[in-house]
Amino acid sequence: MRTITLRRSLAALFAAALAFGAITQAQAETLRIGYQKYGTLVLLKAKGTLEKRLAEQGVEVKWTEFPGGPQLLEGLNVGSIDFGVTGETPPVFAQAAGADLLYVAYEPPAPTSEAILVPKGSSIQSVKELAGKKVALNKGSNVHYLLVRALEEAGLKYSDIQPVYLPPADARAAFERGSVDAWVIWDPFQAAAEQQLEARTLRNGQGIVDNHQFYLATRPYAQKHPQVINTLIEEVRAVGEDSKADPDKVTEQVAPLLGLSKDITSIAVKRQGYGAQPLTPEVVAAQQKIADTFTALKLIPKKLSIADVIWTPPAKVAQQ
What we know:
By secondary structure, the chain is of the alpha/beta class. The chain folds into 2 domains: 31-109 and 212-318, Periplasmic binding protein-like II (D-Maltodextrin-Binding Protein, domain 2); 111-204, Periplasmic binding protein-like II (D-Maltodextrin-Binding Protein, domain 2), CATH 3.40.190.10. The protein is built from 14 helices and 10 strands. The protein has helices at residues 2-28, 40-47, 49-55, 69-78, 90-96, 142-153, 168-177, 189-196, 219-224, 226-245, 247-258, 262-271, 281-296, 315-318; strands at residues 30-35, 60-65, 83-86, 101-106, 114-118, 134-137, 162-165, 182-186, 200-204, 214-218. Strands 2-1-3-10-4 form a 5-stranded mixed sheet, with helices on both faces.
């Protein structure tokens, strides 16, 4: 009797092991991408070419939308996605929080696709006049650094304003009802506020920030599947080239996906940077400056080394 029971137990354990192996294999054959309501990944998702190419490698693609970069990288940190795109500040906060991420590529600067906005009837005419005012922003997002640099340029400290940390939808609602004095935001939310609410730009990123977009992956996924990451970046670059060549076509394609008019979408599309490339020493240095800025402000708890989290593809992959 005991022998039969033992055999059954071993059989159950063997079945469980097989099931676990099948689950692990299924996870390895799925690329989980996090995206936001803007940027090249929206276009890539609509185009469908990535799915076709990766299917040849036995990889399925799963897409998940996030409201902002910090939320997306939290998804990456807890393991719900393998890859995503954000502005320049979210990876700094994520790295400081212990996320095991790698920068794999970046887009050219797009400094006008983020801005500090004020309502059309606002009496505020300069960044300096934000002293003591309530400013809405998504904490740890790309616009967080824009706000810091704009205040610095105006001779103000971050502590001179009252930051109100809200995701884009909530921030817009607060902005519309007048419970905040200014809103720091990115496209396409920026373009929508400019056109629909007649919001006025107090300061965009021109001359003070690059506003790079970064493509990031979890370190384990990038190390285990370098060819998948390489294929993904190739497809991102191809979509970017198409976008530069025919922005009107891209606008037609992406406007319904964003739920915005073609006029608003066109503004956002044309302000974006296109042409994903591996990170250069100059871009790494610029990102290090951002990290050091937030360390000095005590918004992150420790000094970071950006150079430690830059992906270098294996030589055989890089040569293909």
